[in-house]
TrEMBL record:
<feature type="binding site">
    <location>
        <begin position="28"/>
        <end position="31"/>
    </location>
    <ligand>
        <name>substrate</name>
    </ligand>
</feature>
<comment type="subunit">
    <text>Homodimer.</text>
</comment>
<dbReference type="GO" id="GO:0006014">
    <property type="term" value="P:D-ribose metabolic process"/>
</dbReference>
<comment type="pathway">
    <text>Carbohydrate degradation; pentose phosphate pathway; D-ribose 5-phosphate from D-ribulose 5-phosphate (non-oxidative stage): step 1/1.</text>
</comment>
<feature type="binding site">
    <location>
        <begin position="97"/>
        <end position="100"/>
    </location>
    <ligand>
        <name>substrate</name>
    </ligand>
</feature>
<comment type="similarity">
    <text>Belongs to the ribose 5-phosphate isomerase family.</text>
</comment>
<dbReference type="InterPro" id="IPR037171">
    <property type="entry name" value="NagB/RpiA_transferase-like"/>
</dbReference>
<keyword id="KW-0413">Isomerase</keyword>
<feature type="binding site">
    <location>
        <position position="124"/>
    </location>
    <ligand>
        <name>substrate</name>
    </ligand>
</feature>
<feature type="active site" description="Proton acceptor">
    <location>
        <position position="106"/>
    </location>
</feature>
<dbReference type="GO" id="GO:0009052">
    <property type="term" value="P:pentose-phosphate shunt, non-oxidative branch"/>
</dbReference>
<feature type="binding site">
    <location>
        <begin position="84"/>
        <end position="87"/>
    </location>
    <ligand>
        <name>substrate</name>
    </ligand>
</feature>
<protein>
    <recommendedName>
        <fullName>Ribose-5-phosphate isomerase A</fullName>
        <ecNumber>5.3.1.6</ecNumber>
    </recommendedName>
</protein>
<dbReference type="InterPro" id="IPR020672">
    <property type="entry name" value="Ribose5P_isomerase_typA_subgr"/>
</dbReference>
<dbReference type="InterPro" id="IPR004788">
    <property type="entry name" value="Ribose5P_isomerase_type_A"/>
</dbReference>
<dbReference type="Pfam" id="PF06026">
    <property type="entry name" value="Rib_5-P_isom_A"/>
</dbReference>
<comment type="function">
    <text>Catalyzes the reversible conversion of ribose-5-phosphate to ribulose 5-phosphate.</text>
</comment>
Amino acid sequence: MDKKQLKISTFNDALDQIKDGMILGIGSGSTIELLVPKIAEKLEREQINITGVCTSNKTAFIAKELGMHVVDVNDVEHIDLAIDGADEVDPNLNLIKGGGGALFREKVIDAMAKRFVVLVDDSKLVSYLGETFKLPVEVDKFNWLLIAKEIERSKGVTAIRRMVDDVPFITDNGNYILDLVLNKDIEPFAMHEYLIHLIGVLETGYFLDVTDQVIVGTPSGVQVKNK
């Protein structure tokens, strides 16, 4: 099975958790873009209704095109269930997210959710955060270079401004992303606390102690890891 098939194999366990009347947080990225049409099919097949709150403009567009009811995050006071992907998952179900650049909005919605479920293929499982993926950090355009230099000076890690086709990547919030090259000696909780207090940092791609369940697609079948 290729990675796409492994991702799709996780969908049934996630779809079973979507119930009539829910406020559903819908994430971002390649996995979720495959999942959203399946959610729409479930709603039509079972004749149920949900309210969707999306973590990116792209996800919201796809959901609306499929006839789903989507509202702004400020229009709801809670989220019953949030479903998203991840770039890395460690043994304690801590995550790195933000490969698609929507980490701030993802964190807002995931923190609001009563239950947060993550869908990944087994290539995303790591022994420590940063093993296979850089840590995204959303930063203000105004002082991004000063932030990058400060992180490199203080923490000894490389901070790279994300580029797409030789143009700086811009988030839905109008900011830049710095991708940090981590090593196994960096403690995620301490690193997050350091980064979040730098002036100009909006949020980090560390998602720590927020995940309730990770559904993993593997060649030998689906594995469910609970908090």
